[in-house]
Amino acid sequence: MTQGTQGSGAATPTLWDRTRQLAAQEILRTALRLFTQQGYDETTIAQIAREAGVSQRTLFRYFGTKEDLVGGSQEQFVTLLVETVREQPADAGAWEVLRTALEAALSLHTSHEEALERFRLVHHTDSLRAAYLGKRVRCQEELLPLLEARPAPSETDRGQARAVVATAFACFDAATATWLEADGQGDLLDLYDRALAAVRG
User: Fold this and answer.
1) How far apart (Å, rounded) are the C-alpha atoms in residues 138 and 90?
2) Which of 6, 17, 79, 104 makes an SS bond possible with 13, Cβ 3.0 to 4.6 Å?
3) For residue 201, what pLDDT is reported?
């Protein structure tokens, strides 16, 4: 995630924190390069660790699984979306808070190029695609109770809330596919807005 300006109450990162962040970024860059060059399934953790100049044990301290190198930690992803929705004003509607949550998820990528590489890998690798779909289902279930209390169209009906969140994720997937077809041209959230408008319109 791109680092922002430290707030007055935020703790200043230590040299150790910055060193760890740089090491994680180097591991990630190495992994994405190898995945893109030779394929996700064909690339081993041992190879990534060797080319990044770290041990396999160190690599797993930063990234719990091989899938995390592409899709990020499931816990981090789900927690980020849930917390973002929870933090939105009480009078904000379901569509609005879901868009804000998706925007927050996109901020986990350090650059446009990294996001493009990761999305390509997920969409073109069966095992990563399956992992993403499982993560998405879990996230939708976690978001349901938060959306039920939101203003229309979710109101207090669980079925409506489930339809809203499923539609939002489906529109995000459609936007991502369009974005990949255009080789990353355009703004992904703009494409999401257009997809959602087509469904709702």
Assistant:
1) 23
2) 17
3) 78
